[in-house]
Design brief:
Shape: globular
Number of helices: 13
Order of helices and strands: HHHEEHEHEHEHEEEHEHEHEHEEEEHH
Strand order of the largest sheet: 8-14-7-11-9-10
Distance between the termini: 60 Å
Number of domains: 3
Number of strands: 15
Oligomer: single chain
Structural class: alpha/beta
CATH architecture of the largest domain: 3-Layer(aba) Sandwich
């Protein structure tokens, strides 16, 4: 049994926490997966998996093997990508994670990078802040887009690249009396918003932590009419019902109809003021990680004037 193949099966078991589901995801039978892991245990001279009547977790030695397996497979992928490069044009896989409020920006980054470098295949994943940090540490992610205040506290230290400041808007259905200024309606205060029926992202998502902190500082209590862990659900809830939602500028920008130069679906976005909150967003990656050609290309593009111009158009103030 090829050791790298056995490592892949082991990581599938870590992901699915079930022998049958791990085998199905690996496109092999359950006995074949079990035998491959037993062979790996025999080669290494340690017990990797706790076995009872079903999967019971990993031993301490098994957890060490998992860390090395993830690193070995990632380095093998990077080596394969480098050997496939016929020119200096980068090729390979890029795993990009982003907090839900930053997914519109992450998708724009991935699409622009792929247009510039067709040989790069990017997977964009929506993750919590915790999942971003652990994904980078475990080498399941190459690059992540999230909140600077979270990233700066991560251990081990991550390399950060400033991207934009997240602004906040009240998203609601457009009424006859709404006067638009470009893509936005007149500003409203957070205190005024606190009295509205709101759909908010659910705790402990970091966006909700930020919003709750604003209301706490204003000494107002807010009981949301709805909660969700989906940014898309925020917009749908406003369109479908009577609620309003607090959304980031990147999401409001994604709703703009390029032909009409206003928000689609009969929605309007009011900038939130008093306070006028701005939250720094950053790209992060492991400082000591051996970067792939795809990651190096992504980091260069993320600091380019072309990308900074896109950020200015699609985040923040929703300029017309």
């Amino acid at each position: 049994m090829n050791t790298l193949t056995a490592m892949r099966y082991l990581l599938a078991l870590q992901e699915h926490q079930h022998f049958g589901r791990a085998a199905q995801a690996s496109h092999i039978t359950q006995p074949a997966l079990s035998n491959a892991i037993k062979t790996l245990e025999s080669q290494l001279g340690v017990v990797i998996v706790k076995r009872g009547r079903s999967f019971a977790g990993f031993t301490a030695e098994g957890n060490k093997v998992l860390v090395r397996a993830q690193r070995m497979l990632r380095e093998y992928e990077q080596l394969s990508d480098e050997l496939r490069m016929q020119t200096d044009e980068p090729v390979g896989q890029l795993r990009l994670g982003a907090v839900p409020t930053a997914i519109p920006v992450a998708v724009r980054l991935a699409s622009s990078l792929q247009a510039l470098h067709p040989g790069i295949q990017t997977t964009v994943l929506s993750c919590s802040s915790d999942e971003l940090e652990h994904g980078l540490m475990d080498l399941k992610l190459d690059l992540a887009l999230g909140y600077e205040e979270r990233a700066s506290q991560a251990m081990p230290k991550l390399s950060l690249i400033a991207q934009y400041e997240e602004a906040y808007f009240l998203l609601k259905k457009r009424s006859a009396g709404d006067q638009l200024n470009g893509n936005t309606a007149p500003a409203v205060t957070w205190r005024e918003v606190s009295a509205q029926p709101l759909c908010l992202l659910a705790p402990p998502m970091h966006n909700r932590v930020i919003i709750d902190a604003v209301f706490k500082k204003l000494a107002v209590q807010v009981k949301p009419a709805m909660e969700t862990n989906s940014v898309l659900a925020l917009a749908i809830s406003v369109q479908a019902g009577r609620v309003q939602a607090i959304v980031p500028g990147a999401m409001a920008s994604a709703l703009i109809d390029p032909q009409a130069h206003e928000l689609a679906g009969g929605l309007v976005a009011h900038p939130l003021i008093k306070p006028q909150l701005r939250t720094p967003m950053v790209l992060m990656h492991l400082t000591q990680s051996s970067g792939s050609a795809a990651l190096d290309a992504a980091l260069r593009f993320a600091q380019s004037a072309e990308w900074q111009a896109q950020l200015a158009r699609h985040t923040g103030l929703l300029q017309a």
